[in-house]
Amino acid sequence: MQRLKVKQILSSQSAGAEIKAAGWVRSVRNSPQVAFIDLTDGSSMAGLQVVIDPQTEGFSLLNEVHTGCSVAVEGKLVDSPGQGQKFELKASRLALLGAADPETYPIQKKKHTLEFLRTKAHLRVRTNTYAAVFRMRSHLSQGIHSFFRDKGFFYIHAPIITTSDCEGAGQMFQVSAPGDKEFFGKPAYLTVSGQLEAELLALGLSEVYTFGPTFRAENSNTPRHLSEFWMVEPEMVFYDLQDNMDLAEEFLKALLVYMLEHDREDLEFMERWYQKGLLAQLEGIIGKPFERLSYTEAIGMLKASGKSFEFPVDWGCDIQTEHERYLSEEKIGAPVIIHDYPASIKPFYMRLNDDGKTVGAMDVLLPRIGEIIGGSQREERLDVLTRRIRLLGLSEENYSWYLDTRRFGTAIHSGFGMGLERTLLFLSGMANIRDVIPFPRTPGNADF
Ligand code: 4AD
Ligand code: MG
């Protein structure tokens, strides 16, 4: 007899099959002569209903079987007379693998708040909500790889320890060893973005992407910021800003299609409990072109909105979350791409436009979330790039390796970064980014 996952049992077996399964007890219903265990192994939202009666070997263990225990069962799959499931397992054998004291088990059947469950990061995955979110996180990651693989992009790995600040915002965590502040011979940091390294690889492999953890030492305690988050960063030679926006739009839509196809069950669960109208919203986005606005047009719209924003709007100001949400949620009611931002609010590597004032930047904004993707066409001209680096007071020597790519065989190229957790926030309907990463790191918090 083969051990199968609950998902496999429910989808591929038929009544009469002899089955072995194992997992955790979600609940037990006892009646005098028979007990029903709702067994989950995390493989699917639906659990396996296991029927235990006095003929079951191990029947006497029942008084030790509570929510949270791990058990193994074997028996025959039979048509279920009850509502809610097609099959149930009529157990011939029950074994208790790991007990869980019902008095002290932290996750009770009653509904806990998400805030409380965050303090139980080691056990919250046993709940339907977090199991769904973390299954979605896995599917989304697979969907990202599948999109780029199908397009012929190469998956590369940027270093986590770096000596260059990509975004130039001074938001880097320093890395040192005990008693040796300069273990690497110079100050080293946790990367804020794999972009600079991705550019190098793209200027040799043409189309690449990185996908890994990135770190920001910004003191932002918001529902949308993490100190450690995952970012996917494609980088493409011979793409200009238009091509870059086209790819970002195609990518995001492809991910929604992928999720609807591969993880509908969890999306439906999240729609039911967390985000009414979720599936219709995703389907609506897939079917329509994204609105595209220049920064100048966006500022015009914000000024004409008659809204009093916390951060006042003027040409040259940064677009804040409240502005992003006004544009994508209220004004457009759909994803929107803002492009060609003032050079003064963007990093050194973005390509300077002919007006000398703006750069070929683009951000994709989503309703409910705000910015989900940030990207740009890169400055491929050595002289312009060198001037920008000097102007911003950055060290030319530090970036000499980066400048070399413009010195030898430069080519126009573009890329963007999409935050995995922000995407998952949008897809799951969760409101706080701490609920879509298994072990959140935020200012003042690095538990587990
Ligand atoms: O706009 P950002 O800072 O862009 C870059 O880092 C570029 N180097 C990317 C590139 O062109 N290759 O970050 C990109 C995305 C944001 O749109 C957002 O989704 C996410 O990364 N992000 C964060 N997610 C969670 N917590 C934070 N503190 C984040 N900062 C950025
Ligand atoms: Mg950004």
From TrEMBL:
Pfam families: tRNA-synt_2, tRNA_anti-codon. InterPro entries: Aa-tRNA-synt_II, aa-tRNA-synth_II, aa-tRNA-synth_II/BPL/LPL, Asn-tRNA-ligase, Asp/Asn-tRNA-synth_IIb, NA-bd_OB-fold, NA-bd_OB_tRNA. Its main location: cytoplasm. The keyword Endoplasmic reticulum does not apply. It catalyses: tRNA(Asn) + L-asparagine + ATP = L-asparaginyl-tRNA(Asn) + AMP + diphosphate + H(+). Its EC number is 6.1.1.22. SUPFAM superfamilies: Class II aaRS and biotin synthetases, Nucleic acid-binding proteins. The keyword ATP-binding applies. GO terms for biological process: asparaginyl-tRNA aminoacylation. It is found in: Cytoplasm. It comes from the Bacteria. GO terms for molecular function: asparagine-tRNA ligase activity; ATP binding; nucleic acid binding. One of its GO terms (cellular component) is cytoplasm. Residues 134-438 form the Aminoacyl-transfer RNA synthetases class-II family profile domain. Keywords: Aminoacyl-tRNA synthetase, ATP-binding, Cytoplasm, Ligase, Nucleotide-binding, Protein biosynthesis. Gene3D superfamilies: Bira Bifunctional Protein, Domain 2, Nucleic acid-binding proteins. It is an enzyme of class 6 (ligase). Homodimer. Belongs to the class-II aminoacyl-tRNA synthetase family. NCBIfam families: asnS, PRK03932.1. This is Asparagine--tRNA ligase. The lineage of its organism: Bacteria, Candidatus Glassiibacteriota. The gene is asnS.
